[in-house]
Amino acid sequence: MVVAITSVPLLVTYLKGVSPKYPLITDLHVWAGVIFIIFAILRIVRIKLIEKKIMKNKVIIPTILFVIVLIFSFFALSQTKDKDKIVAEENQQTDSQIILYYGDGCPHCAIVEEYIDENKIEDLVSFEQKEVYYNRSNAEELQAKAKICGLPTNSIGVPFLWDGRTCLIGDQDIINFFKQKSNSQ
């Protein structure tokens, strides 16, 4: 019963497309709750039908259950494919460019910024800078890039550089990246 009750808010967020912290656990929880609710409803219907002696064919309830689960499965799978397609398109748009994520007031970011200014890196290497302390969408984008690199999203720091394929964290790694890029051009 607890699974069914706690599945309702998860189902609502699931249908809204909000990505949970642990998607597999959330999906399993939602499915368990939905199946529990369906079985509970079908049991009530079956009891009522038996009381009225209308139920002659016991195949009707499993068939209805199967159809409901099948329809919900197709709906859930189509939502997942749409989300994957959108994420892939976003990644294609930003994969070709270098993005430096920084935070206002971050001492390590200031070291990278000083290096960029002193060596006129912006004239030599094309890249975009995004502030993450005060810009939530940039912070979420940073977490998405870190997730692509397989980094834990709860302990990411700045400066952070995304070159379209890999992630670099820390002032020295990023400065070395820019040295290499500026020397190769």
Overview in brief:
The protein folds into 2 domains: 2-91, no CATH class; 96-184, Glutaredoxin (3-Layer(aba) Sandwich), CATH 3.40.30.10.
How is this structure best described in words?
This protein is α+β, with helices and mostly antiparallel strands. The chain has a four-stranded mixed sheet, sandwiched between helices. It contains seven helices and four strands; from the N terminus they run αααβααβαββα. The chain has two domains: 2-91, no CATH class; 96-184, Glutaredoxin (3-Layer(aba) Sandwich). α1 (2-16) packs across α2 and α4 (107-118) runs parallel beside α7 (171-184). It is rod-shaped.
Write the layout of secondary structure elements.
Blueprint: H1 2-16, H2 23-52, H3 60-95, E1 98-102, H4 107-118, H5 121-124, E2 127-131, H6 136-148, E3 160-162, E4 167-169, H7 171-184
Parallel strand pairs: 1-2
Antiparallel strand pairs: 1-3, 3-4
Helix pairs in contact: 1-2, 4-7
How far the N terminus sits from the C terminus, by CA atoms, comes to 64 Å
Q: Can you give the helix content as a percent range?
A: 55-70%
Give the number of helices.
7
Strand order of the largest sheet: 2-1-3-4
Instruction: Determine the mean pLDDT.
Output: 78
Name the beta content range: 5-15%
> What structural category characterises the helix and strand content?
alpha+beta
Structural shape: rod-shaped
Low-confidence stretches: none
Radius of gyration from the alpha-carbon trace, in angstroms: 26 Å
Can you summarize the main beta sheet?
4 strands, mixed
Write the H/E string, N to C: HHHEHHEHEEH
Number of strands: 4
Q: Could you state the oligomeric state of the chains shown?
A: single chain
How many domains make up the coordinates?
Answer: 2
